[in-house]
Amino acid sequence: MIKGPSEKTDTFMDEERLVSGCRTGDKQCQRLLFKKYKEKVFALISHNLGAYYEKEDIFQQVFVKIFRSLENFQGLSSLDTWVYRITVKVCVDQQRKKYRKRQLKTIDSPDFFENHSVATGGDPYTEHQEKELSQQIYNGLNRLNFEKRMVVTMFEMEGFSLQDIAEILDKPIGTIKSRLFHGRKELANHLRNYIKS
Amino acid sequence: MDNLQKQEKQQEIQKLQKLLRSVSCETKKEHEWQVLENTILAQLDDLKKRAPSPKVTVFAPITRFFPGSVPAFAAAAGLLIICIAGIFTISYRATHPKPLAGSRILGVQGAVTLKNISTDQTEPAGETSMTQQAPILFSRQELTTADNGSLMVQIDKGSSLLLSENSRLVAGTVNDRKIDLFLDQGTILATVSKRGKNQSFIIRTPDAVCTVVGTIFSVTSRRGKDNTSITSLTVIEGAVGIQGKSDPALNGLVKSGETVSLQSSALSRPKQISDDQLNIRSITLLKLAQQMSNEKTANAGLLDISSNPAGAKIFIQDVFVGNTPMAFKYPNGSYSLKLALDGYAPWQREIIVQRLNTSFISAEFEKEESAVSSEPAVAKKAIRRKNKERIVQTQTVAAEQKTDSPDEPPFIGILLNPLYVEALIQINIGEYRKALIILDSLKELAEITIPEKLKIMSKIAECYRGMGNFHNTLKNLTERYDNSKSRHEKSNMLWEIITVKANCLQDYEGAEKAISTYILLYPDGAWIESAYAKLGELQYITGKLSKAIGTFQYHINFFKSSKQVENSIYLLGNILRTEIREYLLAVSWYTRLIKEFPSSKYLGNALFERAECYEALGQNAKAKKDYQKYLKLFPEGHYKTLCLTRLSVSEE
Questions:
Q1: By the number of CB atoms within 10 A of the CB, which of A41, B57, B415, B569 ranks highest?
Q2: Residues of B with CB below 8 A from A5's CB?
Q3: Which chain A residue has its CA at the smallest distance from B43's CA?
């Protein structure tokens, strides 16, 4: 029986060694750091920016920025917080740049299917409903302003604690709570049909 | 009661949380992560190579002459040099002020001069300064326009102004934080982007100070009968503050749609703007210039064409564009411009449209000689009257003929509509909702022709996409597909429908059906190669494996030169290996990929996966060879560890 490519690698290297290795340009350490954060960073970008951004480009920007800024990482916060803070900053920059305009032009790119996940092969009707629901949820998230959207997605979809979000966004915890409260309220209002059913 | 409400809210939040957690994030396949990882690391290497060498300290040569600690002498000498350089810089700056970054001339008409007041140097603003991309505006600079002259200047990224004829404007302080301009006489029309907290934009006249927040407005400064100064302020968008210079108590805030004038220490009450004051053409021109200067890749310039009398037909390269007066964007190049008006001799010129520049063209029509010379004075009047009637008639006929004449692009007429231009601007700045409102109202106009309607609808689709409303995008596309008569347009629209269905709505079944229709109806379509490749992918995604295999094979055999063939070969090998478990067949496809596409992005994966197939077939020696080859070609590759482990196991 052939074994599939295994994910199991020595990801348990301690943070300090990982950071110093990356600073010296050690490829192994860089790959480990990439592996450690790739999924979380990609999910953060996807949820925060929605469908109409070049997520792969932004993802690359984030990691290049992380590796290049590691020199300045002083260890005042945990590496996790620092990495997510950079991700959020890049997302905010992209949002400000109204990246959507450029994205509009790439819709006819011949490689447009490349990054799509393979369907699970479940019941087509359920799948269709799920797709519609997630589309509605994203529409609702799009209606929130960016600050609220970030807090809602990070708390509800990514599972960050309020304290973590406050640290990542560099805002008082009260502000985060308020954004979460109002964000949920607006989103619930948009999704009221689904919530009631 | 309160408790009940609280409980309800709590339940609502719990349901919302459940909904949000049910959304699964888009996942990536292993080889896709691998591609991203390699790209990022390559980028890092590239950046490392480009990094500048470490800087040499200023004190290095001094310490070489004075070994030991840096002596007081060196410090004193350094201080002296800094002082001399400072004095030199100050005196140099006084005569050579630093121009404001981002400022440039957007267009010049007639006689315009730019003067440096400090050095008294004057230069005419003409073609040469227009082509200069370097910053142009600096402190203590005087901009003057003569009769029939006008000047359009970009001040910074979001602001520009149009200086009308017989105007004199002096730049006071001009830097990133403060723009302070003095309008001695004449009129300026300005669009100013929203200012930051520490930024200000002020226009002074001899008797007033206008403070701008972010808006479109015009200021006129002129002399009254008794030589007193009169300032008129007209605000088209936003709000501008006005204050008397001699009496600061005279002040007010002028809102959009209002105009005031300040004369002899008296401020008039705000009045509504009249149509004459609302110069749509100039506003459109300024907005278009502003919009264009923000497009880094813009490959077009602006044309502002007017004529006396107005209403002449504009033809560029013998193609009808619109009627004068008209301001519009046009691609770079040299063209023949013809203006035609019934009863007048045609007016013709060769014009050059330069990138990011505005060409002002004004034509004076002369009566056709045969008509003028032979008629007595009384008859001339009658002819003039007739001509007027004819102008009106020809305009109506032109409007009716728009859809019929093949020479006149039918939708061009919509470009004349300032609302349409406004909608385009709103799309360009990402304000899709605002653009949608305008376009929806335009679509309902009775006089809109079908091609114009289709043009508007394409812009509406753009808005929906921008807003992420793909269901409406699809609806719009389908409607356009049904209404369009051109086969070429129809094929492109169907392809767009496919992309929206598959890419934005994840409706793979729908996309598959649409793509089959595309292949059936447009076998010679521009996207036919991609269509087969993508149909295979869609069939793979939806689990129709045997169909997918057939489609991929067809694509590989019939579109050998297609760029997507390597993709199809790799996916075919993948289906045979992972889904059908036909390892022998999979090996043949992987081998073809390795041989025919030695620099393919799938090479590493193909080698490793072929080795796995050999292992499954019990051909361990071949598998070993492939693992070794993989390690040789990709020493830091994703499957490095796996290859090493499997090689060590096989040796044991």
A1: B569
A2: 30, 608, 638-639, 642
A3: A64
Token pair 């000047």: residue: B151
Is domain A10-105 in CATH 3.40.50.300, yes or no? no
Within 409-448 of B, beta carbons closer than 8 Å to A belong to: 428-430
User: Which residues in chain B have their CB less than 8 angstroms from residue A114's CB?
Assistant: 32
The Cα–Cα gap between B595 and B568 comes to 15
Amino acid at B116: N
What residues form DSSP beta bridges with B379? none
Q: Could you give the count of Cα atoms lying within 13 Å of B125 in the half-sphere of its Cβ?
A: 30
**What would the pLDDT profile of B32-43 be if each residue is shown by its tens digit?**
787 788 888 887
How big is the CA angle at B324 (ends B318 and B330), to the nearest 5 degrees? 55
CATH topology of domain A108-197: Arc Repressor Mutant, subunit A (1.10.10)
What ipTM is given for this predicted complex?
0.76
CA-CA distance, B610 to B590, in Å (whole number)?
6
Q: What is the pLDDT of residue B401?
A: 33
Q: Where are the domains of chain A?
A: 10-105, 108-197
Chain A's closest residue to B612, CA to CA, is: A2
Query: Which of A100-114, B64-78, B375-389, B390-404 is the most confident on average?
Result: B64-78
Q: Is the pLDDT of residue B402 over 50?
A: no
Question: In the structure encoding, which two tokens stand for residue B86, read together?
Answer: 């400072």
Question: For chain A, how far is it from start to end, CA to CA, in angstroms?
Answer: 47
| CA distance linking residue B415 with residue B420, whole number of Å | 6
| Contact predicate B569/B537, CB 8 Å | no
pLDDT recorded at residue B72: 66
Tokens 């227009």, located at residue: B130
Helix (H) or strand (E) holding B358: strand B358-364
Contacting B residues, span 522-551, partner chain A, CB-CB under 8 Å:
530, 534, 537-538, 540-543
**Residue length of chain B:** 652
CB B461 within 8 A of CB B484: no
Q: Report d(CA A72, CA B434) in Å as an integer.
A: 43
pLDDT at B413: 59
**Residue B459 contacts residue B424 (beta carbons within 8 Å):** yes
> How far, in Å, CA of B117 to CA of B142, rounded?
7
pTM for the model stands at: 0.37
Q: Count the Cβ atoms, other than its own, within 10 Å of residue B266.
A: 10
Angle between helices A79-96 and A162-169 (to 10 degrees): 60
For residue A37, the surrounding DSSP H or E stretch is helix A27-49
Instruction: Pick the more confident residue, A32 or B298.
Output: A32
Indicate yes or no: CB of B462 within 8 angstroms of CB of A138.
no
Residue B462 scores a pLDDT above 80: yes
CA distance B106 to B291: 12
Angle separating helix axes A79-96 and A15-23, nearest 10 degrees: 50
* CB < 8 Å from A in window 5-44 of B: 12-13, 15-17, 19-30, 32-33, 36-37, 39-41, 43-44
User: Has residue B44 got a pLDDT over 50?
Assistant: yes
Task: Give B73's pLDDT tier (boundaries 50, 70, 90).
Answer: low
User: What's the CA gap between B585 and B617, in Å, rounded?
Assistant: 11
Query: Is residue B404 classed as helix, strand or coil in its secondary structure?
Result: coil
Contact criterion met (CB below 8 Å) for B515 and B534: yes
Please give the full DSSP string across B142-209, using - where no structure is assigned.
Answer: EEEE-TT-EEEEEEETTEEEEE-TT-EEEEEEESSSEEEEEEEEEEEEEEEPPP-TT-EEEEE-SSEE
Contact A43, A158 (CB under 8 A): yes
Asked if pLDDT for residue A10 goes beyond 50, the answer is no
